[in-house]
Design a protein that fits this description.
Blueprint: H1 2-20, H2 26-40, H3 47-58, H4 63-73, H5 78-96
């Protein structure tokens, strides 16, 4: 019995992980990735600046989706993209207080 319960839990976890990586608004997701690729070509722009501008388009998405967009558009690593998501959200929360 334990084996079947473990398999069921794994399938449920996998499904919820997949749901987190599907953008709610695919149009804005694609726009943000395109914007990131365009801005990344400018040698004056830092990756942080690129990510902040991308974030405006995808701020309502899950952190996993935002991270994917940062990886595709701003050419960040998976760990780096999650750090940028955290830092941008933290900065916005501080400024709204």
């Amino acid at each position: 019995m334990t084996t079947s319960n473990t398999k069921t839990e794994t399938k449920t976890e996998s499904k919820s992980e997949t749901d987190k990586t599907i953008p709610k608004n695919m149009t804005n997701y694609k726009k943000s990735v395109e914007l990131g690729k365009k801005l990344s070509k400018d040698p004056e722009m830092t990756k942080a600046e690129v990510a902040r501008q991308m974030y405006d388009l995808i701020k309502d998405e899950s952190r996993e989706v935002i991270s994917m967009a940062f990886q595709e558009g701003a050419m960040l690593t998976p760990k780096g993209s999650m750090t940028y998501v955290y830092n941008i959200r933290r900065k916005l929360q501080k400024s709204s207080k």
